[in-house]
Amino acid sequence: MRALGGAHIVAHGEAGQPVFRLNHEALVSHVLRASGLPDAAAHATMAAVLRQVHETLYRGRDVTNPYVARYAAAHAARADRLTALLQDAELLVRLDPERLVAQLDQPGAAASAEARLYRPIAEDLVRRSPGERAALLQAEALRQQPELRPWARSAAHLHWTDEWTTAERSAPERSLGLPFGDVLVVSASPDGGLYAAAERLWHWSSPGGPPDLVRGHVPAALGAATRRLTALAAPSHACGIAAVAADAERVLVWPRGGPGVVHALGWATPISAVAVGVAAGREILAATFGTHVAVWEWREGRLRHRGFWRSRVGEVFATAVTTVGGSPCLSRPICWRAAPPRTGCSPRAARASRPTSRSP
């Protein structure tokens, strides 16, 4: 091939193997025009070659050739033969799901039963083995299109047959984007909106509109890195506090009705979680760090520290403000650090307790 093509053919490394291509797309178009070969026919030939490579060398193996996995669907789509490729379930579960799903809107393929089954679960198939993909296809077929169960089972040798499922898929109703930055934590606000935080704190008052930047927060810096907000909470009912968040060194409190105002509490250790709410008529704020929970009460427009609670059995990673027996209490899941043979973390609903210092 190199002897005939000479400098017009270049080799690129891709997925651990050399791939030979003409050195410019314009040259590809010229060769096709000069030969009189329609574009669809050229892609049909390429799709047939790739399927033959899989059939001869990879059928029944865990993976197929990387070039086949990446480009077989694209060539089949441009040849208007994607529907036929979709019927080969054994090959289908060995193709790159992210590249395949991009071709499923092609005319002809979009209406196929296999495409309608594959598209909703394509994201779940990424970074899965062929056997795992076949199992997910079988479960989805049982739930959505039982007539496709034999097709799904032909994708891989499964040692069981799904007879029933209670699985329900809940697709996102909508996606919300930020003007800049990313999101680490979210919390619903009592007005029906949504808070999202990372470098900055944002608030959506309407799910259909753009978010508002919550003023007053200037991200703290550590060298060249910005300390991002890693904990966030909003009360379930309207009260004096609109939201509370924390980064690696501060607890930040935004009062309701005070735009641009933020109360910052300096801290000497990373905060793992925050909580805020009304309990027994009092507005309580809590922050967890290590084996401790710090508690404040919001009264007359400012925070009043009410003490600390210390866990005697492990670190505290979350907390909630609630009411038990008419008294404000903290409920917290804890992480056990037990001696062998039982190690690691196991969640446990702990009894609601008061802080060890003054009670709120």
Strand content: 25-35%
Distance between the termini: 82 Å
Structural class: alpha+beta
User: Helical stretch count?
Assistant: 11
**Mean pLDDT metric:** 80
Radius of gyration over all CA atoms, rounded: 29 Å
Explain the overall architecture.
It is built from eleven helices and 20 strands. Helix 3 runs antiparallel to helix 4. It folds into two domains: 117 residues, no CATH class; 152 residues, YVTN repeat-like/Quinoprotein amine dehydrogenase (Methylamine Dehydrogenase, Chain H), CATH 2.130.10.10. Helix content is 26%, strand content 27%. A four-stranded antiparallel sheet has the order 3-4-5-6, with no helix packed on it. By secondary structure, it is an alpha+beta fold.
Summary keywords:
single chain, 360 residues, alpha+beta, Methylamine Dehydrogenase, Chain H, four-stranded antiparallel β-sheet, 11 helices, 20 strands, 26% helix, elongated
